[in-house]
């Protein structure tokens, strides 16, 4: 069993900049948890503190109940894969992977077996004698992963490992890494600012903002039930409309939607796939089509309200819409926020 516990960890850099503020997290045995957030949210600092590359200003980090807060990186049962690969260009693939094993004074036979085993695991059998400069970016990242796995860490740490790769390679490699993680059942903490990676790989997503947890839950819940406007806007695409609730109806220009919350200003949030468009029931619709984009599998219709507010609607038949067309809005699911918190939401229905 390999469990990671982060208890009230903070990091204040010289000069008074607080990167992480009283952050806590439990990562269960074999779980893959993703730290997701914009630049400066503190996610990479958390990961570096778990790996021992930064020292917490406060708090405690334990692995399987053992306090590792003040241990150096080489003494921790963790393996870290960096965005930059961090490979030695003057060494062969074999020697890159074997380096840490040699420091642990393993026998040559055991080193050979481990290196060959992880090369097979990451799909690079037969690449041991090649120089890292002869490899593609994706192959170099596989070597970096193999080097960490060869040490048989209890906790695998991934710091935006796909950020420097092109989209198709990134998608393929993240699927491969997730398959390996599931096969080995290795507890993993993964940092990214890419929502697609988080949604496709993680058992749980921790959305971070200003060094704190904004929301932590399963990917489907974070996407469908965001608890704050920040999470709603950061995960996926979200349409926001500022307005007021009066007598049980959300109002904004010609838009009126029944909402069972107390009167007052609110933010109305609806995702493109939950915003249905219909031909205007009156000579003048609630919105006007601004642009239509056909992606083949679906269409995206940009619409504009009278006050200039821009929204997006995902449609199955983009050819049914054209520039300047008057349309009415039919939200099939939405959330309502006030003072930074969710007041009400509905579920998507047909």
UniProtKB/TrEMBL annotation:
ABC transporter domain location is 4-235
PROSITE patterns, sorted: ABC_TRANSPORTER_1 (PS00211), ABC_TRANSPORTER_2 (PS50893)
Q: Does the keyword Magnesium apply?
A: no
Q: Which UniProt keywords apply?
A: ATP-binding, Nucleotide-binding, Transport
* Single biological process term from Gene Ontology: quaternary ammonium group transport
Q: Which residues span the membrane?
A: none
Q: Name one GO cellular component term.
A: ATP-binding cassette (ABC) transporter complex
Asked if the Swiss-Prot or TrEMBL record annotates the protein with the keyword ATP-binding, the reply is yes
Q: Which GO terms describe its molecular function?
A: ATP binding; ATP hydrolysis activity; transmembrane transporter activity
* Protein family: Belongs to the ABC transporter superfamily.
Protein's name according to its UniProt entry: ABC transporter ATP-binding protein
């Amino acid at each position: 069993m390999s469990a990671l516990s982060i208890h009230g960890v903070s990091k204040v850099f010289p000069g008074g900049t607080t990167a992480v503020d009283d952050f806590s997290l439990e990562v269960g045995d074999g779980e893959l948890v993703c730290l997701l957030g914009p630049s400066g949210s503190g996610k990479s600092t958390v990961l570096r503190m778990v790996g021992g590359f930064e020292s917490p200003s406060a708090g405690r980090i334990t692995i399987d109940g053992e306090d590792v807060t003040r241990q150096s990186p080489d003494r921790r049962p963790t393996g870290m894969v960096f965005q930059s690969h961090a490979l030695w260009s003057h060494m062969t693939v074999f020697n890159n992977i074997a380096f840490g094993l040699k420091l642990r004074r393993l026998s040559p036979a055991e080193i050979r077996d481990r290196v060959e085993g992880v090369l097979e695991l990451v799909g690079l059998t037969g690449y041991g004698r090649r120089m890292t400069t002869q490899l593609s970016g994706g192959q170099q990242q596989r070597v970096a992963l193999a080097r960490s796995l060869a040490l048989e860490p209890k906790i695998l740490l991934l710091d935006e490992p796909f950020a420097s790769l092109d989209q198709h390679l990134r998608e393929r490699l993240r699927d491969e890494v997730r398959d390996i993680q599931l096969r080995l059942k290795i507890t993993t903490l993964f940092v990214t600012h890419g929502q697609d990676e988080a949604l496709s790989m993680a058992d749980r997503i921790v959305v971070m903002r200003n060094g704190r947890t904004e929301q932590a839950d399963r990917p489907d819940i974070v996407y469908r039930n965001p608890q704050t406007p920040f999470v709603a806007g950061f995960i996926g695409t979200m349409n926001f409309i500022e307005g007021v609730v009066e007598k049980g109806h959300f109002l904004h220009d010609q838009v009126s939607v029944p909402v069972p919350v107390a009167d007052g200003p609110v933010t109305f949030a609806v995702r493109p796939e939950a915003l249905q468009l219909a031909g205007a029931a009156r000579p003048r619709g609630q919105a006007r089509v601004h642009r239509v984009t056909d992606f083949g599998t679906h269409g995206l219709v940009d619409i504009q309200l009278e006050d200039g507010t821009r929204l997006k609607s995902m449609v199955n038949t983009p050819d049914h819409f054209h520039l300047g067309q008057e349309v009415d809005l039919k939200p099939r699911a939405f959330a309502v926020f006030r003072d930074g918190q969710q007041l009400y939401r509905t579920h998507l229905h047909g």
